[in-house]
Design brief:
The complex is a heterodimer of chains A (82) and B (445). Chain A has 82 residues and is mainly alpha-helical. Chain A is built from three helices and no strands. Chain B is α/β, with parallel strands linked by helices. The radius of gyration of chain B is 23 Å and the shape is globular. Classes of the chains: A mainly alpha (82), B alpha/beta (445). At the A-B interface, helix 1 and helix 3 of A face helix 6, strand 20 and helix 9 of B.
């Protein structure tokens, strides 16, 4: 797994975990996720997620768009019907 | 010399590419390599044969081998491609040697994520993918008393439902707090989970698999909550792009692990295309790449790749991802973002929710339909939806995907016209009701 894949996989996991915790509070009867306590868990939960959420959406999006991917190639055309 | 097109992979994307390339360039030689015994069937139908909704596996085949032969496709079954030499435009095929190409289409699909725990080499672990293996597993299912489905992914939901239909004592083990928790919202999934309980399914959420136990054959699953005895474990972990050969050949890979492509499905190397579950595509709303979509996406991408490989010009577009399925006694579905995912990514939204009905309230078999719409604050353009109901979910998801793609707003949906006919539609369309509720909540705030 490359560096950017590692960053994305972990970012998504911990952001989703935080969101699931909030959904559990919103929808009564829903269990919150069980959280781990490794160094990685603590780093992402206590540092990454709060910092990500403090950033304005435009900045977050800019960071995401800076990662390598298909979005950086040409995607402006119109699909022709088959 | 005739154009030589090589397609690696015989799933929806590969066959879509090969067929389209052949139609466009009938003089070209189109060769397909697949490591499996068959092409041209619907693997997505396998859970429904296991669940006895479909009587036999043969019904899943779209065409037989003779059809493709008559069509002019040269399909090499049970044949493995071991490497790509992109600089010299050759692939190495086990038992055949080096095969040159003018255009290469990579359609190598996905693999299930390795559970990463001891015991994955035991017998009795079922990865649902290949129809011939599914036929053998189906015979085994006749004697299975107790099965564990590992992870409540989309396939996991289908397999839990299928095994419960079949009368097998079914356990679901999932590390998340509710079923399909990375996609579905808790209020959408609750009816499904309740219906599984009614069907006798035992659900173990927030539970991680630590090992598969047994001597030669699985007899139990060790979890952080204890040991679960079983005759069979169905592994429904996350789908990962199968792109080892592409990586080794030096093709650019994105942050999802999928092969980077453009709108023509062209990769980072000349004359090489990639389609289906092995690549990644930008999302229509965020433009951020995503990976691992449906069979219909794979087939469409294959047709685009095949057209361009065959000398034509065709483009694909960013995706809005309508999805849907039957789970338990319900149909669920959605478009792009649900509340949980939008909240996770920090995408701002306003929401409107409504509980409606699928037919006139007095008409027999009327079903509830719950619709949740997410819209961009300010513009009120639709950015997502989630639905659960008894019928009519797929059609609403397809419609809402087009609505999101074309910039339809909550205001448009609140005043939409709808079909009213007692057997097929109620006076009040649930989508319109959800949009109206969303607008009303904005006025209050």
């Amino acid at each position: 797994m490359g560096f950017f894949e590692w960053v994305r996989t972990n970012s998504e996991h911990y952001l989703m975990e935080a969101s699931q915790r909030e959904m559990a509070k919103k929808y009564l009867g829903t269990e919150p996720p069980v959280i781990g306590a490794t160094v990685k868990d603590i780093f992402f939960r206590r540092l990454f997620v709060p910092i990500y959420r403090l950033l304005p959406y435009g900045v977050r999006r800019m960071v995401m768009m800076a990662m390598p991917g298909s979005h950086k190639r040409e995607w402006g055309g119109r699909q022709k019907p088959s | 010399m005739a154009l030589r097109i090589v397609v690696v992979g015989g799933g929806a994307a590969g066959i879509g590419a090969a067929g389209t390339a052949h139609q466009l360039a009938p003089d070209a030689s189109v060769t397909v390599y697949t490591e499996f015994e068959d092409v041209g069937y619907s693997p997505c139908g396998i859970p429904y044969v296991h669940g006895k909704e479909i009587p036999k596996f043969e019904n899943l085949f779209l065409q037989d081998k003779a059809f493709y032969e008559q069509m002019g496709l040269d399909i090499h079954y049970e044949t493995r491609v071991s490497s790509f030499d992109l600089a010299n435009q050759k692939v190495t095929v086990e038992g055949e040697g080096e095969v040159p190409y003018d255009k290469l289409v990579i359609a190598t699909g996905f693999n299930y994520k390795d559970p990463g725990v001891p015991g994955t080499d035991l017998e009795g672990l079922y990865y649902v993918k290949n129809i011939r293996q599914a036929m053998e597993w189906d015979k085994i299912l006749d004697d299975v008393k107790k099965a564990v489905v590992v992870e409540a992914s989309p396939l996991g939901l289908e397999m839990v439902t299928a095994l419960a239909h079949r009368g097998i004592e079914t356990h679901l083990v999932d590390p998340h707090p509710w079923a399909l928790a990375e996609v579905g919202d808790p209020d959408i999934m609750k009816p499904v989970m309740d219906s599984w309980t009614e069907m006798g399914v035992q659900q173990h959420y927030n539970t991680k698999v630590e090992a598969f136990l047994g001597e030669g054959k699985v007899r139990a699953i060790q979890t952080n909550e204890g040991e679960l005895e079983c005759d069979l474990a169905v592994i429904c972990t996350h789908k990962e792009p199968n792109n080892r050969l592409a990586r080794e050949a030096g093709l650019e890979i994105g942050s999802t692990g999928g092969i980077i492509v453009d709108q023509r499905m062209a990769t980072s190397k000349p004359n090489v295309y990639a389609a289906g579950d092995c690549n990644e595509l930008p999302h229509g709303i965020t433009k951020i790449p995503i990976q691992g979509l449906s069979g219909s996406h794979a087939y469409s991408q294959g047709k685009v790749a095949g057209t361009n490989a065959g000398g034509g010009d065709r483009v694909y577009q960013p995706v809005y991802v309508p999805w849907g399925m039957v789970a338990g006694k319900w149909m669920i579905g959605g478009v792009s973002f649900g509340e949980t995912l939008a909240n996770a990514l920090g995408i701002p939204f306003v929401a409107g929710v409504a509980q409606g009905i699928s037919r006139a309230r007095y008409y027999p078999d009327m079903k509830p339909v719950r619709v949740k719409l997410l819209a961009e604050p300010g513009t009120l353009k639709l950015i997502g939806a989630q639905l659960v109901g008894g019928e009519g979910i797929k059609e609403r998801c397809d419609f809402l995907a087009v609505a999101a793609k074309t910039g339809v707003t909550l205001k448009d949906l609140a005043t939409m016209e709808n079909v009213y006919s007692p057997p097929i539609g109620a006076l009040n369309e649930p989508i319109a009701m959800a949009a109206q509720n969303g607008l009303a909540s904005l006025k209050k705030s």
